[in-house]
Amino acid sequence: MLPELFAMLASDLFLLLSLMTCLLDEKVPKALPYVFQVAALSGFGHLLISRIFFIEFDVNMRFWYNVFYLGVALTNIVAVNAYLAFAKKEWKVARLWSSAVTFPTIAITLIATTNYGFAFDSTLPPLLIPALLTFSLILLSVSTAVLLGSKVINRIKGGD
Amino acid sequence: MLFKNFKTTRSTRFLLLLMLSIVIGLANAAIFYSLAFSSTVSITNPTVIFVQGEDGSGVVSIGSNSSTASLTLAAYPNITLTYEQPLNISNTDAASHDFRFRHLTISPANGTADVGNFSYICFTILDASGISQATFNYTTSGNDWITPATMDPYETLPANTQWVVYIETMAAASAQDVSASITIAVDVQ
Question: So what's the ipTM on this one?
Fold first, then answer.
């Protein structure tokens, strides 16, 4: 398994972000889809650099710069989610975004990263996998709560 | 004027971005698959190497990467001269490897009278318990060397083991003290 898989995944996430923000152009800045396209193009640059310096760069170095780029893509997904929820107060859209984009992408990333870690035995720090799994569980709980909505929460609290 | 009147709708922008996304995605996939299917050849130090033996001082010179050895061997008329342990063959790896000896060069050159002074130069490979595993012999025919064929089959050297190369030489009865220089290589399978 090549670490460049993370760069390709991150680039695809930026493309997804670009298309999604284009559909939500009334709620996000107009330039955002194009910014994400440029970010996706930088993923192509990542892959190209890996291809040119395949022998010179060792696998550890390639792993970390590809994972960093994937981290940037995930941060952007979470940031758009937070922007919709807190800056624009678009709770419905934020809820939808959380369950349809944020959670699946983080879950896919976790699977890919842990799979890579197991394949290469000691590439990942030992505490990273439990930490990411805990984070994933917290995110799942939050997503479920947000998806159920305030009405259900109020009903649980004893409201109408 | 034409461009001024051209208003981009959400669907045209989406279509444009979708096309760009397809192009970028395909380019990424092409680069990734060219990486995934490119074969790599790594160059490492050899694990089966020549090592100078206890009696090798002044006799043996180990070549680059320790995969070749040059020996300067003397011979006495009608007497067998023995080099007990001039050269060792060592496997530094944790796995066993197959190896063979291959003749590279010898001097004096064929056609010179000095060659006729030699009767034979015999290399014997002894394992860790002193048992002969293979031989690699140089003999003469008139003023020409009969060099040994490349060892076949390969010999198996166990992991982290060193074997001894034992050498015997002899010159013709009429010869004076003579010497020969031989370079051999080790091939690893």
Answer: 0.76
